[in-house]
């Protein structure tokens, strides 16, 4: 090849690389600490998601200030388990606890975390550490504790970034760090690549590896949603056990377009959800005593969830079938 042509080819290649790199760096930062963000995850202790043991959500709700910095609160919320392999919507939250605090540094393209609990020794609780660093480029090493424990739970090692790109994932253009780091499944020679996705965490796995009480096994990110619990197909079933016997809903099989509620509490409200988590009816300030609740014709036949709350606390959630 002629030297001048060789130089031109080399020069064009350099310009292309610089142009491509500028696109990556100019890519709008996708934050992780977003109010109402839900990572819905299935976990299985037997390393198969065909019959999961638990479905839960990491949910961002509310703010907290620590050493003059504002963080978002991340809760882990466990859902009621069905007697079936798959978990239909709406998901019913049966327990919730504060799991971590996170904050974004958009200019740095970093996410910082303060863990309330420590799954493994390399994640120090009650101390701010880097959760994700999306500013990294090819060949650089990542040492964030959450992703490290994902691949090397007992022997943390740096994760080497093999390539960087931008993909559309959960309806947004996101910067992705690809790595050949691998996770062994059982004792077989099967390995999964590790991709760190801006605003999401570990691709197909979520913001954190596992809640501390889930034990070992595998997990899968089945949905990512930003909005209210109702928007994301979630209803609260954490019930006030002290008042459960003060309200009654019957019958569970509705054949005459109505059902009864017996209420012994003041300031009681009622919500009815369909199977997608959408609120189809709301009744405030139920009367003390026996009250007939009508079923609207446009609801259609099927399963609904009737939830009674007293002064903002869920008292009882019952499933009814409109026949």
What does this structure look like?
The chain has 2 helices and 22 strands. Strands 1, 2, 3, 4, 5, 6, 13 and 14 form an 8-stranded mixed sheet that branches. The longest helix is centred in the first third of the chain and has 24 residues. With 323 residues, the chain is mostly beta strands. It is elongated, with a radius of gyration of 24 Å.
Give a quick summary of the entry:
This protein has 323 residues and is mainly beta. It has helices at residues 3-26, 145-151, and strands at residues 37-44, 54-66, 69-79, 91-105, 110-115, 128-133, 141-142, 159-160, 163-168, 173-184, 191-197, 201-202, 218-226, 234-236, 247-250, 253-254, 258-263, 268-273, 279-283, 289-294, 302-310, 313-322. Residues 15-24, 47-51, 182-191 and 211-216 have low confidence and may be disordered.
What is the topology?
Layout: H1 3-26, E1 37-44, E2 54-66, E3 69-79, E4 91-105, E5 110-115, E6 128-133, E7 141-142, H2 145-151, E8 159-160, E9 163-168, E10 173-184, E11 191-197, E12 201-202, E13 218-226, E14 234-236, E15 247-250, E16 253-254, E17 258-263, E18 268-273, E19 279-283, E20 289-294, E21 302-310, E22 313-322
């Amino acid at each position: 090849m002629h030297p001048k042509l060789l130089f031109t080819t080399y020069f064009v290649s350099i310009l292309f690389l610089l142009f491509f790199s500028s696109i990556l760096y100019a890519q709008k930062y996708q934050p992780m600490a977003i109010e109402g963000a839900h990572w819905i995850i299935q976990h299985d202790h037997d390393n198969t998601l065909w019959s999961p043991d638990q479905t839960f959500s990491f949910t961002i709700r509310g703010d907290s200030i620590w050493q003059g910095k504002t963080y978002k609160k991340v809760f882990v919320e466990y859902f009621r388990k069905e007697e079936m392999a798959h978990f239909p919507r709406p998901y019913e939250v049966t327990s919730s606890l504060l799991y971590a605090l996170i904050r974004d540094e958009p200019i740095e393209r970093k996410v910082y975390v303060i863990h309330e609990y420590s799954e493994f020794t390399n994640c120090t609780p009650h101390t701010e550490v880097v959760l994700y660093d999306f500013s990294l480029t090819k060949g650089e090493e990542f040492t964030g504790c959450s992703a490290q424990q994902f691949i090397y739970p007992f022997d943390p090692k740096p994760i080497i970034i093999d390539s960087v790109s931008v993909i559309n994932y959960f309806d947004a253009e996101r910067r992705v760090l690809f790595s050949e780091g691998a996770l062994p499944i059982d004792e077989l020679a099967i390995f999964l690549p590790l991709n760190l996705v801006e605003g999401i965490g570990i691709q197909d796995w979520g913001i954190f590896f596992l809640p501390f009480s889930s034990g070992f096994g595998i997990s899968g990110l089945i949905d990512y949603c930003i909005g209210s619990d109702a928007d994301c197909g979630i209803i609260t079933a954490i019930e006030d056990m002290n008042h459960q016997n003060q309200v009654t809903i019957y019958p569970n099989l509705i054949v005459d377009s109505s059902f009864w509620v017996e209420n012994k509490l003041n300031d009681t409200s009622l919500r009815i959800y369909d199977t997608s988590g959408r609120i189809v009816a709301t009744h405030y300030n139920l009367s003390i005593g026996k009250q007939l609740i009508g079923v609207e014709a446009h609801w259609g036949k099927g399963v609904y969830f009737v939830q009674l709350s007293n002064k903002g606390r869920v008292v009882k959630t019952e499933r009814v079938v409109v026949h």
